[in-house]
Design brief:
The complex is a heterodimer. By secondary structure, chain A is an alpha+beta fold. Chain A contains 16 helices and 13 strands. Helices cover about 45% and strands about 10% of the residues of chain A. In chain A, helix 5 runs antiparallel to helix 6, helix 6 runs antiparallel to helix 12 (about 245-260) and helix 7 (about 170-180) packs across helix 8 (about 185-195). Classes of the chains: A alpha+beta, B alpha+beta. The complex binds protoporphyrin IX containing FE and FE2/S2 (inorganic) cluster. The site of protoporphyrin IX containing FE has 28 residues of chain A, from helix 4, helix 11, helix 12 and helix 16. Chain B: One of its GO terms (biological process) is P450-containing electron transport chain.
Chain lengths: ~400, ~110
């Protein structure tokens, strides 16, 4: 346990917890463990994987905002790239530190800027309306397959400029990527073993000649001509959008629909004021945290809220637990679409904060708006089934029946 | 502590006390002020903390960095010469009394 003014550096000075935040039993219901992690102390040590952990808002925010001490270039999963060979060539943005990160980040920020969002907005909104048309025809459907997956699949691959063939690899590829951030458990091992065909597909699609003009992918390649990035860097930056841009929003939209179906008073509120759609999506990202965790690696010995952590240690950030920390949030366990969500860490914080956040919000907003305008009621008609992933939280199926407005 | 004034699009005036080291956006959201969304939490990534700076204060603000400049091109309401992102305005004692006008919408 914590000893005041302890000169001890390392794990012995912080509370040890015997929990596995990558076990199936944990994924089924992470909330009691999140609370245990928060209440044990500002910094904890997880013996199961020999890592430090932070689950309170203040410490998660602090770690995210000190990239010089808590770096990303040694991997944002459990694997330390200094000691182990990464399962794929590292990301040039997610798994990079300044100054390398600054340059690649600037490119993706421009490709996914607010100005670009204004240009794609009408297209994204029309596709959301078309999705609702299809759902109204069905009345009873699976809100994951037919809505949370179908909608992003109907716009994002096109927005990127991908060919029509082979798109069925996209979600499986992302699932591998997010499982691979976890420890060497069964989820990670099996995902990597089966990854070859998905990796081959993705590598191919990232090449300039396979990306339609005008899409996000082509816009990235165009930066090669300005000399901002090299021709070998461009495909890897396209890969970042393929990895992080689809499955995340599937789980984000899935989370929002699951929340609105579970909390009919919030659905009613949204129906009465459609301008709350964007907030309803954002609050779902806080409430469910589709991206649950990321790691950092210490570049030096550091003191964090009284805990002394040595160099080269992995620190696991529980974004989801921070998003429900009662020290930061009023009634953290209630889904409130009028909440001031600014400052939540569902998209991270600091220099690596999600570069695709505007795309995610746009998709979420226009989809929820289309649903709320034309549907009076969403009822859950069967047992929701969870999808298990080392990093992503979401459902595998959510049977619902809708009543038209 | 320095105080700053926000003038809403409908003319309503709100004065807020700022805290040590806060940005104008942080002071506004801490007081629950409507009209500033700040979806990215101050990371200069969303352009939903847009304000129009009262002309008399414009020259006293820190210069616009490239990132802010690019984001200002994507604000929901028209970018004007006095447009700034309030998360990029760190409040110092010299900015006591700063007047910021809020746009009609942020998205
Ligand atoms: C609800 C949907 C989404 C969630 C919850 C989410 C979450 C996150 C989080 C937590 C990070 C921070 C990683 C870190 O600090 O190490 C991140 C980074 C990133 N996200 Fe997202 N994301 C979403 C959607 C998207 C979309 C739509 C795209 C692409 C269009 C995208 C692309 C990226 C990229 C490239 C990074 C790395 C940024 C960097 O390291 O500078 N994400 N995301
Ligand atoms: S709060 Fe997002 S740009 Fe200022």
């Amino acid at each position: 346990m914590t000893v005041p003014n302890s000169p001890v550096i390392g794990p012995s000075a912080v509370p040890h917890l015997d929990v596995d935040p990558f076990a199936m039993s944990f994924f089924a219901d992470p909330y009691p463990t999140h609370e245990k992690l928060r209440e044990a102390g500002p910094v904890v040590y997880l013996d199961k994987w020999n890592v430090y952990g932070v689950a309170r808002y203040a410490e998660v925010h602090a770690v995210l905002n000190d990239p010089a001490t808590f770096c990303s270039s040694r991997g944002v999963g459990l694997s330390d790239f200094k000691k182990e060979t990464p399962w794929r060539p590292p990301s040039l943005i997610l798994e990079a530190d300044p100054p390398a990160h600054t340059r690649t980040r600037a490119v993706l920020s421009k490709v996914l800027s607010p100005t670009v969002m204004k240009q794609v907005r009408d297209r994204f909104a029309a596709a959301a309306e078309a999705r609702v048309d299809a759902l109204l025809d069905k009345r009873s459907f699976d809100a994951i397959t037919d809505l949370a997956e179908a909608y992003p699949l109907s716009i994002f691959p096109d927005a990127l400029g991908l060919k029509a063939e082979g798109r069925e690899h996209l979600i499986p590829y992302a699932s591998v990527v997010f499982n691979a951030f976890g420890p060497p458990n069964q989820l990670r091992q099996e995902a990597i073993e089966r990854s070859a065909p998905h990796q081959a597909y993705v590598a191919e699609q990232c090449q300039r000649e396979n990306l339609a003009p005008g899409g996000f992918g082509a816009c990235i390649h165009a930066r090669v001509d300005d000399g901002e990035i090299t021709a070998t860097e461009a495909p890897l930056l396209v890969r970042s959008l393929l990895s992080a841009g689809l499955d995340t929003t599937v789980n984000g939209i899935g989370a929002a629909v699951y929340c609105l179906a579970r909390f009919p008073d919030q659905w009613q509120r949204l129906r009465e004021d459609l301008s709350l759609a964007r907030g309803a999506f954002e609050e779902a990202v806080r409430f469910e945290s589709p991206v649950q965790t990321f790691f950092r690696t210490t570049t030096r010995e550091v003191e964090l809220s009284g805990a002394k952590i040595g160099e080269g240690e992995k620190v696991l950030m529980f974004l989801a637990a921070a998003n429900r920390d009662p020290r930061r949030w009023d009634k953290p366990d209630s889904y409130d679409i009028t909440r001031r969500t600014s400052g939540h860490v569902g998209f991270g914080s600091g220099i690596h904060m999600c570069v695709g956040q505007l795309v995610a919000r746009l998709e979420g907003e226009v989809m929820l708006m289309a649903l709320a305008r034309r549907i009076a009621k969403i009822e859950i008609t069967g047992e929701p089934k969870r999808r298990f992933n080392n990093t992503l939280r979401g459902l595998d199926s959510l049977p619902v029946t809708i009543t038209p407005a | 502590m320095p105080a700053i004034t926000f003038i809403h699009a409908d003319g309503k005036i709100e004065r807020v006390e700022t805290g040590e080291g806060e940005s104008a956006m942080q002071a506004a959201t801490r007081h629950g002020l409507d009209g500033i969304l700040a979806e990215c939490g101050g990371n200069a990534m969303c352009a939903t903390c847009h304000v129009y700076v009262d002309e008399s204060w414009l020259a006293r603000l820190p210069a616009i960095a490239d990132v802010e400049d690019a984001l200002l091109d994507g604000t929901a309401t028209e970018r004007l010469p006095n447009s700034r992102l309030s998360c990029q305005i760190a409040i110092t004692p010299a900015l006591d009394g700063l007047v910021l006008r809020l746009p009609e919408r942020q998205v």
